[in-house]
Amino acid sequence: MTSSIMQGARILSLGSAVPDLRLSNKDISKMVDTSDEWIVTRTGIKERRILTDANKSVVDLAVLASKKALNKISMDPKNIDLIILATSSPNDLFGSASQIQDRIGAKNAAAFDLTAACTGFVLAVITASQFIQNGSYSTILVIGADTLSKWTDWTDRSTCILFGDGAGAAIIQACSKENNGIIGFQINTDGRQSKDLSIGYQESTKADKSTWPSNNNGQFKYIQMNGKEVYKFAISKVPNSILSCINKLNIKIEEIDWIVLHQANQRILDTVAEKLNISSNKMITNLNRYGNTSAASIPLALSEAVELNQIMYNDFIAISGFGAGLTWGTIIIQWKC
Ligand code: COA
Description:
This protein is 30% helix and 24% strand. By secondary structure, it is an alpha+beta fold. Strand 4, helix 4 (97-104) and strand 5 (110-114) form a beta-alpha-beta unit.
């Protein structure tokens, strides 16, 4: 890959943000027929953060995470060329990225949304790296942010235990080819299983068909999920995605220092580690505290790991996202900070 790029791309800074309100398993067990023990055993989740302020949205979390990433490296937001917001819960269906551009003062940046649910951050980093490695842009802000609590049916115990709200931001910048840190990727989609995880739009049954066009007052439904199918999909596709990606780069699985998977379920993380025959110590996890934060989960976990000084210069990191679509994908990063 290095030979075909005009310049390198590396993650320079990360930031994250979560709402203050913690919703514990005990709290949820007062809402639906479940228990802390069931949730911890089946998912590993103990609590999640929920955005309760009706005046706040995914944009507020994304702005906070972005400002933290910028402040860490004292970067002037006017230096950002492009903002990519990976989200499936925008506060505007036409896109929310432009609101972030305005609120952080990145007046020179183009901005757009990218929708790919829990694979969103991986796809956004890959997209950003293409813009940088082909020489088009120098500095890109990539954000993964979701507030799926707004799309959760809080009477459905099979889904409401899983999701939480959050945002993570990464500043990706051009560098020399030798310092290139985003060294490989692999992405896939299987639309045949799109119904296994979706927030579908439903036409109103009360719509007046005699007049057209008319406002039919349809609405998006809550999260619909076939948990068993999604579970089977994740544990079969993710290990293969990582292996095919590292094989192309001639990297052995033993050389991978860290694995950062989309934080969906501890049992998925454990099974993937087992299938890859890697130590669970290499698997970065924080889902016990945040649940599944969709596009935010990978940058949240990566940001915390960097803050804890777990990740060292030149470490190889395999990052995999998976989820609705169904989509999945891996990026291999060599840490260059
Ligand atoms: N509390 C208590 N019991 C529950 C429950 C809950 N929150 N949710 C389901 N159950 C019950 C079911 O009704 C079922 O009862 P039954 O045997 O009497 O019919 C039983 O527990 C087993 O349900 P099942 O759906 O088979 O559980 P599971 O082991 O598949 O675990 C998930 C459910 C959702 C935790 C699991 O399927 C999963 O994590 N899937 C992946 C989901 C995911 O990660 N989605 C996002 C990807 S981006």
